[in-house]
Amino acid sequence: MDAGALRLLNEERRARRAAILVTDLADGSARVVREGEAVEATLAEPVAKAFRSGNSGAVEAGGRRFFLNVHVPRPRLVAIGAVHITQALAPMAAIAGFDMEIIDPRTAFATKERFPDVALHAEWPEVVLGSRPLDAYTAVAAVTHDPKVDDFPLKAALDAGCFYVGALGSRKTHARRVERLLALGASAEQIGRIHAPIGIAIGASSPAEIAVAVLAQVIRALRTRGAEAARDDAA
Amino acid sequence: MLQGTTIDEARDPLAIAEGWLDEGRKVAVATVVETWGSAPRPVGSHLVIDADGNFQGSVSGGCVEGAVVTEAIDVIDSGAPKMLEFGVADETAWQVGLSCGGRIKVYVERVS
Fold first, then answer.
1. Could you tell me which chain B residue has the CA closest to the CA of A120?
2. A132 and A212 share one domain
3. Pick from A13, A30, A119: which is nearest to B2 by CB?
4. Domain that holds residue A186
5. What is the ipTM, given to two decimal places?
6. Is residue A204 part of a domain?
7. How far apart are CA A107 and CA A122, in angstroms?
8. What φ, ψ does residue A89 adopt, rounded to 5°?
9. A126 in the same domain as A105
10. Residue A234 lies in a domain
11. Integer Cα distance of A167 and A79 in angstroms
12. Rounded to 10 degrees, what is the CA torsion of A108, A113, A119, A124?
């Protein structure tokens, strides 16, 4: 590996972008492949699979042996709304390997007592996201039911290319939300990426069960990035 | 708590390797490329080594790092990468091996 490859790899990792160091095990030559970058046909499938799974490993391609070392940013899950669902979602998301953050400007909801051991911002999303921007390895779940709080981060999540954007509310509520997001300048394609009603269909009833449905949907979105996902959004 | 979503500069082996290069030190990177059975560190884990034998990171639970460092100093001298294999079944297991019973392959290369 040359120093240039190491520096480029670290630059991508510092910027929270996924990259693979591809090393030819016969001669030791190495290069950095960024997510979405074109590679030779023989490596295309193993490279795409490695980005999705995040698993490193040796592969045979075109009669040569390569080692693919995958560097994928740690996924974040940002919940808009310090509500009952979020109280269950936060510990489960942490166990599943997500960096969890909660944003809710309503100080009666966003209390340390209700949310111990989790990054909690009792401020408007506009303020928090200004200093902690969303990115492709961040999921956003908006669960306040309040357009004043939810709409801005939903639009920001769509613009940032978040791998998952979900919004709580009935189909009727969502139809009104769609109107507002269109007015904010969202495109129809962007709006089609919102998971609403939120969560996979497991018949979830209690707040904790809805949290399970949301987390499952987030994990599926993470692990099917770039692949044709079987969408099953009905709650 | 609010950090940790990017890389940990003080402990990340590849960030440390870059810092060492900036200081003009010669650097080798060792990477776990295959594991069988019970292996302590997953595929892709790094140990970084300089010409004086300083090292950071890990490729096992401390079982084989000594041997990898010795080999890495050779690799820094020669520039030729090496593939090392460690396992309890190896003859060398009495000196260095994995007490857990697993087997690992470690690729050692110079950063040039």
1. B2
2. yes
3. A119
4. 76-223
5. 0.85
6. yes
7. 6
8. -65, -40
9. yes
10. no
11. 10
12. 10
